[in-house]
Amino acid sequence: MRLLGITLPENKNLQYGLAAAIYGIGIPQGLAIAEQAKIDPMKKIKDLTTDEEAAIRKIVETMKLEGNLTREIGQNIKRLKDIGSYRGTRHARNLPSRGQRTKTNSRTVRGNKRMTMGSGRKKESKT
After folding, report:
1. Are 69 and 23 contacting, i.e. CB atoms less than 8 angstroms apart?
2. Cα(45)–Cα(40) distance, rounded to whole angstroms?
């Protein structure tokens, strides 16, 4: 089954297959789509009928997903940077923008360029 130009994994359940393959759909959203289309969310994607595929396709096409979603997120971040908000400056500096501490954590946002130093004293050689 193909949705939005993406081939969904055949052997996964509908709920998890949608979440794994399409950017912007998570597991709860996949469950909501299945319920809206009146399909069992634990049904395998390869077992779907053409009518069920059409119902899913109709629901998914109304949502903002993939490229449109990434473009909108990028525009929102650019807007925050342009107006000079605190969140915008945090995005510009590649720092956490939601109030997390940065002294010890935030390795994923900052990158692993800063190393922990220990006590700051150099160890003496044993010669």
Report:
1. yes
2. 11
Q: What is the mean pLDDT of the chain?
A: 85
Read off the pTM.
0.68
What digits encode the pLDDT tens for the residues 31-83?
999 999 898 889 998 888 899 889 999 998 888 888 889 999 999 999 999 99
| b/e code 2-25 from CB counts within 10 Å (16+ = b) | ebbeeebeeebbbbbbbbebbebb
- Break the chain into its structural domains and give their ranges: 2-63, 65-97
Give the separation between CA 102 and CA 125, rounded to whole angstroms.
33
For 13, list phi and psi in degrees, rounded to 5.
-70, 155
Architecture of domain 2-63: Orthogonal Bundle (1.10)
Separation of alpha carbons 57 and 36, rounded Å? 12
Q: What is the pLDDT of residue 82?
A: 94
